[in-house]
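[retry 2/3] tRNA (Guanine-N1)-methyltransferase: previous attempt timed out, resubmitting with same input.
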Amino acid sequence: MRKYISVFIFCLVGTVVSAQTLDEQFKELKESSETFKSYKVIKETELNAFWKSVLDSVSLKEQSISEASGLIRQQEREIADLKSTITQKDQLLEEKEYAGTHISVLGIDFSKDAYKMFNLIIISALVLSMAVLMYKYKDNNKIAKKKSNDFSRLELEFEEYKRNALEKQMKLRRDLQTARNRLEEMRST
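[retry 2/3] tRNA (Guanine-N1)-methyltransferase: success.
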């Protein structure tokens, strides 16, 4: 950009300097020429020298314009390269920003906030289901202990009933045997 400004200033200064020089030469040519009626008579050598100065000034201007155009083309190429670089950097920056805010899990892209929320929901659901399962386990364990205790008590009662029934049966058999023995004794006597 500085090169462009300096070339522009150089062209502007060169134009002003050569215009002043041409003006001075033209005034000098006009003053040194002779007047014939209302016409000015200019020597051909002086006119040729003036024309040569004009051509030199024009060629100098064309050369500076050519240099300025070359510089402009070069700067336009640099600008295009810089724009391309900026576009690539912007694209890379967008990719980095996307990578910084997103995460890929099982081939699915999530924003990090959504992934955190998703994990929080899953962990909460697992903790809740674990709490329910623990409650059910404790409840089932309590019921199983109660049933086991009831079964043990019932088994003891049944054993006691069997023992009592066996004792009654044995007592009845003894009584029956005693009665048979008395009956035998009575028959034998």
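[retry 2/3] tRNA (Guanine-N1)-methyltransferase: DSSP finds three helices and four strands in the chain.
[retry 2/3] clearing retry counter.
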